[in-house]
Design a protein that fits this description.
The protein contains 10 helices and 12 strands. The chain is of the alpha/beta class and 370 residues long. The chain folds into 2 domains: 267 residues, Isochorismatase-like (Rossmann fold, 3-Layer(aba) Sandwich), CATH 3.40.50.850; 67 residues, no CATH class. The chain has a 6-stranded parallel beta sheet. Strands 3-5 form a two-stranded antiparallel ribbon.
Amino acid sequence: MRLRNVFESLPHPEHYDPTDAGKIFRVPYAERAAAARAWASTHRIPPAGRDQFRVGLWLIDVQNTFCHPEFELFVAGDSGLGAVDDSERLSSFVYCNLPLINQVHFSLDTHEAIQIFHPVFFLDEHDEHPAPMTPIALDDVLSGRIRVNPDIVPTIPGATLESLHEYLEFYCRRLVETGKYELMVWPYHAMLGGIGHALVSVIEDASFFHGIARASRPRFVLKGRNARSENYSVLRPEVDRGPDGVAIDGASEADADLIEDLLGFDALIVAGQAKSHCVAWTIADLLEAIRARDSRLADRVYLLDDCSSPVVVPGIADFSVSAETAYERFAAAGMHRVRSTDPPSAWPGPVGRHALELSRAGSRVMGTAP
């Protein structure tokens, strides 16, 4: 029996409806599990444990809070429906490339109300909480236009009002020194335990189907619970040490275990939200880790260009240019910008080379003899 060539695109399973990308629904797990097992049998899809060429799919913050139009930080992108369209393409990519994807990694933005980027943390000159999407510059802190809300002090272990004011000034200065985005007051979002924290349904559905069909266990990583720092990157917070040089609230400089896991794949495909923020800063940290180890490893990384969108808030903020600039830098470093609608056999780098090897071998699929 000859197994399906991993680079032959599969059809969509019967349950898949692209319009689900803009909906919230319950995944019928038992029904999907039975369908996934039957699908694997029909299309002769081998279990992931047989893969000799391992491709990881790293999905960053594909949660309702960013991907559904009714939620707090919907990533509209330039089109106004950016994250919905991205979720449609991404879920389609998963179904069509089930045999290619060895394992799915998820990061989940994970917050509580009292954190340094939420309104309740601050008071303005009118003793009001600043509105969402208010940028806070170092000068705003130095002038007293923005200050720490004294009511939140007891919620920060070991803090005093004076120490938090000192820390806020240090934090804003540190963002400038390290070339990070200015501190932003974001709407309450990705609240731990809330529906906004959950994966957007169409991606959860596709991931579950993949996990059963390929007998592959996804990995979930929570990020962003540190009360004293933003955490765009999955791999580290924006600021990980206080004025005294001590790690803040258990923050680490980088998630070495996760980096080791991700770079252990023969190829790594990356997508998620938002392209200008959490995705861009995460890839930047991954690139830093790659350069510290071996710059040639950048050739293993594939950026699904059409499955991520930048933050665009008409009249307030547009990060399209910064997203494009970041992706151009990643490509210059050796990473590959690809589209989900192109067959992986047409991609450059190790995935494309592996496809050609399989084509020449004819009788071998994912390193497994027929």
